[in-house]
User: Which sequence fits this backbone?
């Protein structure tokens, strides 16, 4: 009996010690910090050398989707007799894109739209002479930017145009921007609808929701007094514009006469 009690006591104490040590260990883990003392990196080129690790089963699964997508993107929507090249301060591609946005805004905005503005950085490719496909439009505008119409003070429109002289020009429609000098410094002459921009007037500007936040050095756009969201993707408006125009023409006409 005495021996049995000693065994039970020993077993009990062993369990207490075990749980005590476990608690100490968990407590230490909870407060232990890990510090990275170094690392190594290796550049892996993404080129034809990676073809050997392709998942052939997954590629086969995607093949029908790829074929359908290529068929849809190859659909011809219009035709360009001359290439619409990209460049600053003014180019056929920027002029077409701003004109198309301006005309689309006039169709949906419940008021007058004075001007339209697009950015060079948002136009991702030129269009060659020949068929213009759905894929060409997606390549030009791969972003899901929406058409918005802002109400801006004339002084802010002029400030915006002055930034164009600094950064080499952007795409505009419904207005003309000419670089000039004033008091020995760089300035701009801005005309809207054939009249000099009135610093105290109000103008409606069709543009993208992205630029409305002042992106691409267009801080003045973010000083709008009213904001109207069409909830329409600019890419969809461009697709429709190509369909409607059928023959796509655009040229440099002197609307952005600033130094690149």
Assistant:
């Amino acid at each position: 009996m005495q021996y049995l009690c000693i065994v039970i006591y020993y077993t009990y104490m062993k369990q207490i010690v075990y749980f005590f040590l476990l608690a100490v260990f968990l407590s230490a883990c909870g407060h232990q910090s890990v510090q990275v003392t170094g690392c190594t990196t290796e550049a892996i080129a993404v080129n034809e050398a990676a073809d050997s690790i392709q998942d052939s089963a997954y590629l086969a699964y995607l093949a029908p989707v790829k074929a359908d997508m290529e068929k849809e993107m190859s659909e011809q929507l219009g035709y360009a007799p001359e290439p619409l090249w990209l460049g600053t301060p003014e180019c056929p591609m920027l002029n077409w894109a701003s004109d198309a946005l301006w005309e689309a805004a006039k169709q949906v905005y419940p008021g007058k739209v004075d001007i339209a503005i697009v950015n060079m950085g948002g136009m991702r490719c030129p269009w060659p002479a020949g068929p213009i496909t759905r894929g060409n439009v997606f390549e030009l505008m791969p972003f899901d930017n929406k058409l918005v119409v802002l109400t801006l003070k004339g002084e802010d429109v002029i400030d915006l145009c002055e930034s164009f002289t600094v950064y080499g020009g952007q795409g505009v429609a419904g207005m003309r921007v000419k670089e000039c000098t004033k008091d020995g410094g760089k300035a701009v002459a801005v005309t809207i609808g054939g009249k000099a921009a009135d610093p105290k007037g109000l103008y409606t500007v069709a543009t993208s929701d992205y630029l409305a936040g002042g992106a691409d050095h267009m801080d003045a756009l973010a000083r709008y007094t009213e904001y109207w969201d069409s909830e329409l993707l600019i890419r969809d408006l461009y697709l429709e514009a190509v369909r409607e125009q059928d023959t796509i023409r655009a040229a440099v006409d002197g609307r952005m006469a600033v130094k690149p």
Observations:
- Residues 2-31 form the longest helix (30 residues).
- Residues 71-257 form a domain with the 5'-nucleotidase;  domain 2 fold (CATH 3.90.780.10).
